[in-house]
Every structure is written in C-alpha cells, then in structure tokens.
Amino acid sequence: MIFEFDRDQRLWRDTVRGVVAKQCPPRLIRSIVDAAADPAPLWQTYVELGWTELTDPDVAVELAIVLEELGRCVDPTPYLATMTQFAPLAPGFGHLERPGAAVLDGVSATRDGSGWLLHGTGRHVLDADRAEWLAVATEAGVFLVPAAAAIITRTPVLDPGLHIAEASFPGVRVGNDDRAAVDTRRARDLSLTGIALTTVGACQRVLELVLEHVGGRKQFDTVIGSFQAVQHKAADMHVAIERARALSYFAALAIAADDPRRRLAAAMAKAAAGECQALVFRHGLQLFGAMGFTWENDLQFALKRAQAGELMLGGADEHRALIAEEYRAAHL
C-alpha cells in the first residue's frame, strides 16, 4: 500500500482545489447563510464535473481528496451525505445527479403481504430535507424510498450551513424490489472516513485563517506571530491536522484496497479527526482573540463545520472504545 499521492492524484487535488476556490468562495457561504442563497447551482457544477460519479470503492482516494477540499471550503451542498452515506447503501442506483440521504438507525421493517412496512423515526439525518431519495437501513435490509414518502423536519443546529433533519416513517409501504443487499459495515466505514476528511478540511481552513491573522496582527508594535506561545499553538494545530489527515487517507486506501483493516482504520480516522477539531477549535478561537467570536468573521463557519464533524456518527471517545475492543479481540 503506497502511502503518498501519485502524479495523477496530485493533479486531481490541484484541479479540485482550483475549482473549489473559484466556485465556492467564502462570500458564497455567507450569502447562503445570511441571505438564503440557493446552493443548487454549486451542486449542479459538481454533477457536471463528474464528481458525483466517484462511487466505486476503487476511487475512494480520489473521493477523499474531493471531500477534504469541500470540508476546507465549508461546502453548503448535500455532497457529503450523497456520496458517503447514500451512495454506499444504494449500489447500482446510477449516476447521482440528484441528492440522496441515508437513515442509518431508528427505523424498523415488518412484513406486510408481499411487501414491507417501515415504522420509526431516523434522527440527525444529514441532508434528508434536501434529498430526493432515502436509503433506509433496517434489520431486514436497506430500502430505497422516495423522500416524499417520509415526513421530514429540519432540525436547527450550530452550523448554519449544515442541514440536519428527522425522517419519520408512519407505516410507509415498500416492495421487495426496493430492498438492496448491501454490506452495511463497509458502507459505514466510508461514512466515517468521509466525515473525518471533511473535518480535517475544515480544521485546515481554521489553521490557514489563523496564520493569516497572526502574521498581520500587531501587539506592542510586534507581529503576534513572532511570539513563541503563538507559534507553539500553531505548531500543535498543524501536527494534529497532519495526524488526522494521514489516518483519514489510510482509511480511504484501506477501503479502495478492500483491506480487512478498513473498519479499524475508519474508526481511527474518526477518532483522530475528533481530537484534532477539539484542539484546533480551542487554539483557533484563542489566537483570534475577541474577533473570533464575531459573526462577521468567516472563522466561525470552519469552526462550526469541524465541530459538527465530531458530533456526527459518534465522537472520538466512542471510536477510541471501538478501537480498544478490536485490539482486545485480536489478542484473544
């Protein structure tokens, strides 16, 4: 397993970064949050560029590169939910030109003649309110359901650019043809890795803003970036980000290679990303001083996206516990 980008992957990263810088600048994020601008044209750009076709496990690293860059720009589209949660649960669904979302728990399926009835409520479903299709995971399998068949209610959250919703199924009838045979464990590995990479990208954006700020801000006629205490905090942020990035790309490589370590790698990536955002959030806010608390400062968007990444699909503590269980089981 070669643990560095090859020439094509480096070119892909540079291409994605250039597109994101042009199509999703900070002013677009603010216009969506402050003026309710529509992010649909940005989603359509991703579709036209073929970014929604990265559904094969063989291109997990290429997808990972896109996810990190979109985390870095605090992407306002349903790309993360569609590509890392819906797509793995809906194999063969075709090109994902329309957003999808995944209901990962809270719903049960019972037999009803030749079909099934879905009951229950999925909570904290990423982008359910913007999806056209839902992949609903139950003990009886994964069902593909039109979003219009569910009762969907958006839930207010800390990150103003993030869409979280509840999806209720009051006896929704589905047929056997709507049920997909999917390796849900593998799908969860990709979901965890995707969130970890998005968190890493958001943390990288925080560090970039911090370095720009401390390189120009003066205290006692001296640039504060020259203070040793400031340099130590910036270095700690950099080390935490690099650690989380390395583990996240290792998880993507494990998924691409169908390596049996992929479950452990995904848990390690999610735990490292959670620990990274905790440190980056604390140091980033402190190094900006009182300015970091203001709505006018774009720092808030990256900070909130990073913290949201920690809260989705379990925090660092939960995944550290899973890693410990895996190691104990391996030594028995």
UniProtKB/TrEMBL annotation:
GO MF annotations in UniProt: oxidoreductase activity
Keyword field contains Oxidoreductase: yes
EC number: 1.-.-.-
Enzyme class: oxidoreductase
Membrane spanning residue stretches: none
Pfam families: Acyl-CoA_dh_1
Cofactor: FAD
Protein name: Acyl-CoA dehydrogenase family protein
Domain Acyl-CoA dehydrogenase/oxidase C-terminal: start-end pairs: 194-326
SUPFAM superfamilies: Acyl-CoA dehydrogenase C-terminal domain-like, Acyl-CoA dehydrogenase NM domain-like
Keywords: FAD, Flavoprotein, Oxidoreductase
Family from the record: Belongs to the acyl-CoA dehydrogenase family.
Protein's UniProt keywords contain Aminoacyl-tRNA synthetase: no
Species the sequence originates in: Nocardia halotolerans
Taxonomic superkingdom: Bacteria
